[in-house]
Amino acid sequence: MKVYINGKFYDENEASVSVFDHGLLYGDGIFEGIRLYEGCVFRLDAHLERLEDSAKAILLELPWSRQEISDAVLESCRMNNLKDGYIRVVVTRGKGSLGISPKTCKDPQLIIIADKIRLYPKEVYENGLKLITVPTRRNHAAALPPMIKSLNYLNNILAKIEAQHLGYDEAIMLNDQGFVAECTGDNIFMVKKGVIYTPTVQSDNLSGITRQAVWDIAQKLGIPFKEGVLTRYDFWIADEAFLTGTAAELVAVTEIDARQIGDGKPGPVTQKILEAYRGVVTKDGTML
Ligand code: PXG
Question: Which residues of the chain are under the pLDDT cut of 70?
Answer without folding.
Answer: none
